[in-house]
Amino acid sequence: MVLQQDPSHDVPYTVPRPIETAAEKTIPHLRKTKTSSQLIVNGKPFLMLAGELHNSSLSDPAYMRIVWPNMKAANINTLLGSITWEMIEPVEGHFNFSFLDQILLDAREFDMKIVLLWFGSFKNALSTYAPGWVKRDVKRFPRVHALEAGGVMKTLELVSPFCEEGSKADGKAFAALMRHLKEFDSDHQTVIMVQVENETGLLGDSRDRSRLANQKFKQPVPTEVISHLQSQYDEEVHSLFRKRFPEFKNLTAGEATWEDAFGKGVDADEMFMADAFSRYVGQVAAAGKAEYPIPLYTNVWLNFDDPSVLDLQGLPIVVGGGAKAGIYPSGGGVPHTMDVWKLNAPALDFIAPDLYFHDYEEVCKQYRHQNQPLFIPEQRRDERGARRVWLAYGTYLGIGCSPFGIDSLEASVSPITKHYGLLNSVSSIVLEAQVNRPEDIMGFFFDEVSETKVEKPWVRSFGEFELTIDRAFVFGKPGPGAGMIIHQGDGKFLLIGWGFQVTFKSTNPKSTFTGILYSEEKTVSAEGKLHTARVMNGDETRSGSFYIMPNEDPDYGGFPIAVTIPSRTMIAECTAYSIEEEEEDF
């Protein structure tokens, strides 16, 4: 047990620390918690306040020297950037890491952590980042062939996932990269994770129609795949797999073909490709993990079953991913194929969703499958996207979120700057709650008011109180908001964020009254310690009715009395209480 100071009351509390091996202490790793995992960097828990660069940004150290200070000003502590197979191994067997070394040296100057994106064989369902010597040699590295409308066979710039030479060559290059990172960076831990490939799968058809693929499609489903899915079907297999394949548990193992197991058509094709792609990526990941076992993951281009759940805001439905395998990458790690990926690619520590237009909370739930950690490697960089990170970090214990294209957005106008600034100031408190009290932390957001969408409050019970979180009350036009609540025990709650208000209700059936006992605005020091600022009882709680975390500039709607004070620190502590009365007390 490690004795620490409570960040709000200077009272010692104990934090359990699992025993770690010497090797784990010296490199970035994931430490298991009660219900998830936490990222450990330089021996300490680390909350990634991340952003993903444009695809080509990390290839030029000179360009990045313009980027670093802007990213620092945006309160970003981790950047995701691609490193490509074609740049690392332009000639087979000859590796070049000089530009990467300079990038890492410059990142250290700005105390910036890096997540490398390995664009090897697959990037967005193509092989455009593979070296020229791979692209030209179709005998050694055969391509995927897709069937177009009218029965026309088309050759794609996509290495077939059935190509053993491809996974072997990609794995060799990835191993060289990881070996170099261990030698060059393990003492500094600049690189804290690596993404293996990017949005893997096949676009334009539901499966590979090449001669090699057709032969394998006729073969039985590997026994270990059927056995694994059936053995975990009732409890461990993803709910969306069970929904899609309700009779799979009753399948007779043995000589079942893909169509026997998953039905004729697109579903069988997709599961066939998921098995192939996951084995390929799993072999590449294993080769790198053997050299330097820092956290590895892969990311996913999402699908949708019901387009009504998409948050398109007038954009065409095509941006939402796709409802049919082949419109979205067939064989990628979408929820209903995720268990095949986890079986075939155990060197991946988790699978992560690229989350732009889907229901944010629903996807967070889906990718916490089997208590794997949540990381959002790509998401929107606008205000709408920035609000949602509170839900990921709070309710779903996210280790990081990463708005895409972050380097072409100035920190002075970026919504990320404000959100990450507040999160950074309370990161030690958030990390402590994530690991020790996951049931006591939640995040939420409120978008701009919609005339067509019925808004529901966020409701959650903590201990003896039920909390209802609504949009902050104003006389004029209600504004957006976002934040987090952390239950500290005994009816005491830490409120972080703006644009919301909290009402407390006792869950004790004998309670006759619930109110606010005491509330304070808090400031936070550079060390993450909370200190009391203004006492906020009385009018600032609407006489004990609820506690309001207002926006920075409340809209009074022309009302002449400024009854709502502007938000200042965006951090408060509020203690709720309830009473029980006997009949004679009335």
End-to-end separation in angstroms reads 49 Å
Task: Give the count of helical stretches.
Answer: 16
Radius of gyration: 26 Å
Classification by helices and strands: alpha/beta
Silhouette: globular
The level 1 CATH classification of the largest domain is Alpha Beta
Summed up, the domain count is 2
Instruction: Summarize the main sheet.
Output: 8 strands, parallel, barrel
> In the CATH hierarchy, what is the architecture of the largest domain at level 2?
Alpha-Beta Barrel
Average of per-residue pLDDT values:
92
Question: What is the fold's blueprint, element by element?
Answer:
Blueprint: E1 2-5, E2 12-15, H1 22-26, E3 29-32, E4 37-41, E5 44-45, E6 48-52, H2 61-73, E7 78-84, H3 85-88, H4 98-109, E8 113-123, H5 132-135, E9 143-147, E10 153-159, H6 164-185, E11 191-198, H7 211-217, H8 223-231, H9 239-244, H10 258-262, H11 266-291, E12 296-301, H12 338-344, E13 350-355, H13 360-366, E14 375-379, H14 383-393, E15 400-403, H15 415-425, H16 427-436, E16 441-446, E17 458-462, E18 465-471, E19 481-489, E20 492-498, E21 500-506, E22 511-524, E23 530-535, E24 547-549, E25 571-580
Parallel strand pairs: 6-7, 6-15, 7-8, 8-11, 11-12, 12-13, 13-14, 14-15
Antiparallel strand pairs: 1-2, 3-4, 4-5, 9-10, 16-19, 17-18, 18-21, 19-20, 20-25, 21-24, 22-23, 22-25
Helix pairs in contact: 2-4, 6-11, 11-12
